[in-house]
Design a protein that fits this description.
The chain starts with a helix and ends with a helix. It is built from three helices and five strands. The strands form two sheets. A three-stranded antiparallel sheet has the order 1-2-5. Helix 1 packs across helix 2. With about 90 residues, it is α+β, with helices and mostly antiparallel strands. The chain folds into two domains: about 40 residues, HU Protein, Chain A (Irregular); about 45 residues, HU Protein, Chain A (Irregular), CATH 4.10.520.10.
Length: about 90
């Protein structure tokens, strides 16, 4: 499902105008992104939790030349599936 399909579903289910549905979906994803950028955890009960995982820097290797290279530390979002979502996906 894409954002556009989500907006269409919201419009169809709630009767909101397309513009208001667009604003609601954009607000939802922007607030989640802002929370993760601040280092906060996003938890939607029975669906998922998303949090930022920090990885240390390390010495890697350039696959073309074999030359060692320093990989900087990084932060990445980590998605953990909720129990209810696991059940729905597994049994449907």
């Amino acid at each position: 499902m894409t954002k556009a399909e989500l907006k269409d579903a919201l419009t169809k289910e709630t009767g909101l105008s397309r513009n208001k549905a667009k604003k609601a979906v954009e607000l939802f994803f922007n607030e989640m992104s802002n929370a993760l950028a601040k280092g906060d955890r996003v938890e939607i009960r029975d669906f998922c939790s998303i949090f930022v995982k920090e990885y240390k820097g390390y010495t890697g290797r350039n696959p073309r030349t074999g030359e060692p290279t320093q990989v900087p530390p990084k932060k990445l979002p980590f998605f953990k599936c909720g129990l209810e979502l696991k059940k729905r996906v597994d049994y449907n």
